[in-house]
Amino acid sequence: MNILAVESSCDETAVAIVRDGREVLTDCIASQVALHRIYGGVVPEIASRKHIEAIYGLADQALSDTGLTRQEIDAVAVTYAPGLIGAVLVGVNFAKAAALAMDKPLIPVHHIRGHIAANYLAYPDLEPPFLCLVVSGGHTMIVEVTDYTEMRILGTTLDDAAGESFDKVARVLGMPYPGGAALDAAARLGDESRYELPRSKPGANPYDMSFSGLKTAALNLIHHAEQVGETLDIPSLCAAFSAAVSDTLVPRVVRAMEETGCRKLAVAGGVAANSRIRRDVLAAAEAMGAAVYMPPLSLCGDNAAMIGAQAFYEYRAGNLADMSLNAYATKSILGETL
Ligand code: KG4
Ligand code: ZN
Fold first, then answer.
1. Is the pTM of this model over 0.85?
2. Which atom of ligand 1 is nearest to the CA of 179?
3. Taking a C-beta distance cutoff of 8 angstroms, is the pair 78, 108 a contact?
4. Which of 43, 124, 189, 291 lies 20 to 30 angstroms, CA to CA, from 72?
5. Average per-residue pLDDT in the chain?
6. Whose CA is closest to atom 5 on ligand 1?
7. Contact residues of ligand 1, CB 6 A cut-off
């Protein structure tokens, strides 16, 4: 089954064609990152306009890359939530029009389910059940993927997402948007023991976590240094920050493996590209004898291939939409409107 998949929830316009949920035939992306960089973050209205400009050409490119005709596309899938509402609407309207014009089924896909499904592309043998640490720009959670379209949220961040806190600290350090990757690169040259940063303590739900205290502590440290004229060791601060984020995430994942007995651990989302988190997840999984699944960096950030992968399983579960499909800025991974 060839699925034409569309993603436009933030600042990447993307169209992919994925066969049977596992094989990427083409994965076309037009990134707007350079455009938003001068503003230090995504400007929603600019994002929507750029999606409109890019989306049709990308769909054409996807067809010409694969040599497939419109008749050989079996369904159209689209990210319908969550994201910047004007941006998501562009993809949803394009996908509705394409499905209508080609007379094909329309498959709505939750963006975070798509991030998880990036693992199906990287690991053809991976099947649920497994645990997944989801770390993106807007979401941070530990999910038990019981089946392809059935999941249970074990814990989430109570405030900022991990990616959001990486970006904020990077921005204050003068790194270009989105700063997560730059902060990660700097951290590799630093000594994390030079700065002490707090770790999120377990709360009522031991899987929940918090990053705002850590973010504020890092920002206070930077501002204090500025005020007293002290030169910061930026790589070491980045290393200390990355270590603190990882120390918040990884012990909770270990606990989830212990308590569920599950020995398959996946990571997903843009922050899953972080070298410190990847290293610590790998070590923790190895220590527990668990299998670990980490998508290549190219599939960690936003892309449409992951949407096409998840769409195959949504289709199999009968989760289709009609022309009344709407876009949602927020919606839980379980499908509940927030
Ligand atoms: O999943 P994603 O592409 O978009 C959302 O769905 O939010 O995640 C983007 C986030 C940004 O916050 C970006 O800074 C972060 O992923 N990121 C990283 C790294 N690469 C991307 N954060 C830390 N270390 C990285 N290497
Ligand atoms: Zn994303």
1. yes
2. 14
3. yes
4. 124
5. 97
6. 137
7. 10, 115, 136-138, 163, 166-167, 178-181, 184, 269-271, 273-274, 301-302
